[in-house]
C-alpha cells in the first residue's frame, strides 16, 4: 500500500525481516547436536533382543539396511518435537482388559504399550528395547511420549523452559511495532527488480528512531535501545537509504507538487501522472529483460572520469588532474565486459570516441550463427550516446562490415533519471576495488585493476579513432532524436541502403512513422567511408600548470626523475596550448525534461 505521495507504508506490507533466519547461537548448536545422529554407519548398533522366532514380535525381520533408513528419516531434522512425533507414530496404547497385580503393593497399569516400525509399507510389531536401539533413544523419553498420548494430546508439545517474559512486554511491543509501522519509505532507487525491502530517509537510523519513539511515548511504554533495535530487526525489513544524486527530476517535482497541493482532485491527478511516468520507465527494463529470438543484447556506457595521479594529499582536492576515460560494453547479464580506454591528451569524450569504440567492438565480436539482430541499451547522454553520429556509425557497420545474416540493429534509451544499466553494475565492481587503492600514479595500474573484471582495449594499440563526422558529407542528421526512445536501423531488401525509424514509445508503434533513408540527394552508401583520425588532444595551460604544481607537491621539483611520474613529462610539454580549448562535442546529458506523455 502507498501513501498519496507514492511512498510505501511500512506496516501495510509483509516484507520479511532484517533478522537472520537461521540463528545458530552456541546454545542452538548444542541443541542440534543433542538431537543429531552420532552413529550414521551403525557401528555401535547391536541386536539387543532375542525375538527372532517370536510369532508376535518381528524384531528379527528388520535388517541393518532397514535400521539405517529408519534412523536416517528420524534424524533428518534435528528437532525434538519432530522426532517425538515420529516416535509417537510408532506407539499404540491399549487399555488393559483385566487388572491384576503381581505384587501385593504393586500399582495397577492404566494402559499397555505396543511398538511398531514401518518398512516398505509393511507394519512390523517390535519390542521396546528394539525401538530404543533403532532410534537411539532412552526409555524415559518413550515413557514421556506415552503419558502425553494417554492424556489425549494428539500433537506433541514442548513443556520445558519457554518464554516467561514476553507477556510482560506485550503493550510495549505493540507500541513499538505501531510506531515503526507508521514510517513511510520507498523501494530502492537502484534496483531493476521489485524488492521486499523498503528504505526510509537517509536522515534516520535506528538510534534516531528510538529517540523519537521515547520522546513521544509515556513513561510506561518507553523502552531501551536494545529492545527497540531487536523489534526493528525481527519484525520489519527496513533499510536506510543513501542520498541519491541522480534522481529523476520529474519524479521529485511531481512529488513536491503532491505534497503542497491542497486540492484532492489535483493530488489524484498528479499521483496518476506519476504512476504512469514510473510505469513508462519500467518498460525500458522489461524490454531489456525480454529475450527475442535470434537477437543478442548489449549495454554500453561511459564511466565517470578517473584521474591521474590519484593521491591522498590535500593539494589533489583542489588541483586539476589528467583524465583517464573508460567506456564499457557488456552483455545485459554483466558478463564479459570490455573496456575501451584512452587518456585526455589522446582524445576527448564525445560522439567520435564512443562511435569508434562501438564499431571496433562490432568488428571484433563473434555473434551466434542464428543471430540476425543486435539490441543496444544506453543512457540518453546527448553528446556521447544519443546523437546522429552514433546512428551513422551503426549504419556504416551494418552496411559495410556486418555479415549478410545480420539485418537489423535496435538501440533503446531509458527515461532520464531511471537509467541504472548493467554497465553501472560493472562500474560498481570496479569502484569497489578502486576504493582500496589510495594511490595510483600510472595508467598501467588502472589497466591492471580493470583487467581483473574484463578485457581492456587501449586506444592507439588495440583500436583506432575514426572520423565519424566525415559521414555527414553523405548522411543527414536524424530528426526528433531528443524525443525518441527507440531507433531501428535496417538493411533494405537489396542491401544497397540502410533505413532508419525512430519511436517515442517503448511498447506501441507510431503507424505514421516509416523507415527512411538518411542519404543526402545524389549520395550512395557505397561512397561512404571512414578515415582514421590522428591522436592528440590539446590541454589547457591552466590544467598543465596545476598538474605541475601537484607533481611538485608529491615528489619535489625533480618529479620528472621519479620512475612512476616521468611519463607525465612528454605529455605536459607536447600537448600544451596557451589559449582556452573548446571541447569537441561534449554536450551534457538531456538536462531539459520533455513534457510527459501519459500513455505507454
TrEMBL record:
| Region of interest: Disordered | 1-37
**Domain DUF7869, first and last residues per copy:** 372-498
Q: Which organism is it from?
A: Callosobruchus maculatus (Southern cowpea weevil)
Composition bias, Basic and acidic residues: 1-16
What PANTHER family does the record point to? DNA-DIRECTED RNA POLYMERASES I, II, AND III SUBUNIT RPABC2, PTHR10773:SF19
- The identity of this protein, by name, is DUF7869 domain-containing protein
The cross-references to Pfam families, in alphabetical order and at most eight, read:
DUF7869
InterPro entries the UniProt entry points to: DUF7869 (IPR057191)
Domain of life according to the entry: Eukaryota
